[in-house]
Amino acid sequence: MYHSSSQIESQTEEVEGRSNLFRMVLESVVSLAIAVILFRTFQAEGYMISTGSMAPSLLGYHKQVICPRCHFSFTYGVAYDESVSGNRFQAQGLPGAESFHRSGQYATCPNCSTHSIDLANVPRNEGDQLLVFKHAYYLKPPQRWSAVVFQNPMKPTQAYVKRVVGLPGESVQVKGGDLYINGKIERKNLKTQRAVRLLVYDHRYRPEKDEFFQPRLLPAESESAQDQSPKSQRTWFAKDDGFIFDANDGDPLSVSAQNGWSWVNYQHWMRQGGHYDTSVSLEEWPTEVEKPEPVLARIRYDEGQKKLSCKGSMSAEDCHRYLDQTESEEFRYAIALLYEKSHVSPLFDYYGYNTGVENQQAISIHDVMFECDLKVNSGDGEFSIEIDEGHHRFRNVFDVQERRVSLFVDDQKKAIRTGKLPGDFQLQTVSLEMSVMDRQVLLAIDGQLVYKPLLYSENSTPRKEIRVPVRFGANGGHFQVTNLKLYRDIHYTRGKALHGVDEPYQLDQQSYFVLGDNSPVSLDSRSWSDGKVDSKYLLGKPFMVHLPSRQGEVKIGNHVGHMRIPDFSRIRYIQ
C-alpha cells in the first residue's frame, strides 16, 4: 500500500511524541525519586511517633474519641503493640520504644467528664509522622521550648522526641510543676504557651438532653437573684455558644444595676469521681443515722472540727441514702449542700489522653489561660476578665469609652498595668487571651500583647484551693462573648526524680535537658540514668506533621472493616 510522505511524517511524529511523553514522564519520576532520596539523605527525614510522651502536642498510637454526650473530639493513647504489658506504660517518643501503656477499653471525656466511654469499636490510628530537618543544628543550636529529635545514647538505633528545656551550661530544676533555670523560674512567652497548653473546657461542646449535667459557665446573679424574673436581673444570658449582656435590657432598679458588675463564673463541674476534698459545717451527727466507716468511706464526719466532708463528688445514691434516714433539717441541709459543692472540683493535672493510672496523685493546677471572642455593641460600659491563681486575683478591665485596658491585682484601686485598646475594638469581634502562667500575667488582643507582661514572685505560703479560677463580667454597655475556652499549663511531675527535681541538675557545655509534654507518662531527663542529652546525639528539628492517617470505615455487605486513609486535619507545623 502506498503512503504519502506527509502520512509517514505524521505517523513518525505521533510515535516520537508518544516516546517523548513516556520519556518525559519516566525522567520526571526518576528525578523526583532522586530528589526525595537526596532530600532525605541531606536535608529531611520522616519519623513516626509510637507513644504518648509528647501528647497531646504530638500523638503516638491513639484512638480518636467523640464523646457521646457533648460530642467533643479528643485523642486517647493506646499501645502500639497489643502484646505490650499494661504495667510498663512509661515510654519514649519515636520508633524503637520498647514499652507503652496498655490499650484501654474505656475513656473519660476531658470536656464534660463523661466516664466509661466504650472504645471497643473505635479503630486505632497510627502516631504522628514527623518531617525532621536533619541539619538544623549545624546552623543554629536548639532553643528552649523547641521540640528536638535525638538518639538514645544507650541504644543509638532508637530515636526519641522531647522538648528542650535546659541549655548547655545551665542549672535545671523542676519544682512545683514549673521549670527553674539557674535558680529562677523560666517563663514562657505567648507563642510557647499556645504550643504547650492543654484544653480544659470548650464551651461550644456542651451536653444536650442531659438533665444531670450542670453548666460550667454560670451567671453569678442566678444564685443571688433567684426571686427575680430574668428580665429584671440585668445579667448575662446564655445564647448559642456564648453569653450576651445588655445594660439597657432590664429594670434600672435591679440587683445587677445596684451592684454595678455582673459576672459569669467558671466552675469545674464533675459528673462523678475525683480525689479532692469538700467540706461543710455540721454541729452534730444525728444518732439515728448510721455513721460511715472512717477509713474506706468517701463521706466522713469530724466531731472535733464539726465538719462533714466528702472525697470527690458525692453520688446521688449516697445523698438520698442519708436524706432518707433522718428528719433533722440541719443534717439534711448539710448533706444537700455537700452534694452540690462536691461536684465543683478544683483544676487538676488531668490528661484525657492517658489511661488514668499513670498519676494516681491528683495535683492541683493554678496556671491557666482564658480565651474568648468579644463583640462590643455600644460605645460605653466596661468588660472584665479575672483569674484567681491561689495567691492573687488579677483583673483586666476594658473601658470602652476611654479606649483603655487596666490590670488590677487583688483589691487594689490603682492599676499596675495599662494599655490602649486597638482602633477596631468596637468595629469587629476581637479575640482575647489572658493567661496567668509561670507567675506571669499576659493579655493579648488578636494575638498582640496589650502591655508589658507582669512578673511576680513566688509566695512562701501554699496556694489556696480555687473552685472559681476564672470569671468575666460587665458593668454597663452591651457585650457579646463567644468561643469561650479554658486552658491549663503543663504541670511537670517528679517522674523518677533522679535528676533536676529534688536538687538542680548542672549541664555541661555540650548537653541539654529535655522533658516530655505528657509529664506523667514521659521518661525523660528526670528519670534516665544520665539526665543529659549530648549535642552529638541530636538528629534534627521536627518541623511538620506530614502524611498522617486515620482508620476509615469500609462496608462490604454485612462486614465492616477499616483501612488507612489520609487525615489532612492533622497536617501542621510544629511549634
In short:
The protein has 575 residues and is of the alpha+beta class.
Explain what you see.
By secondary structure, this protein is an alpha+beta fold. It is 15% helix and 33% strand.
What attributes characterize this protein structure?
9-stranded antiparallel sheet; Umud Fragment, subunit A; alpha+beta; 575 residues; 8 helices; Jelly Rolls
What portion of residues belong to β-strands? 25-35%
Helix segment tally: 8
What best-fitting shape do the alpha-carbon axes yield? globular
Tell me the span between the first and last alpha carbons.
72 Å
Radius of gyration: 29 Å
- Could you tell me the number of beta strands? 40
Which CATH architecture of the largest domain is right? Answer: Ribbon
Question: How does the helix and strand content classify structurally?
Answer: alpha+beta
Task: Assign the CATH superfamily of the largest domain.
Answer: Umud Fragment, subunit A
CATH fold group of the largest domain: Umud Fragment, subunit A
Tally of separate domains: 4
Overall average pLDDT: 84
What does the largest sheet look like? 9 strands, antiparallel
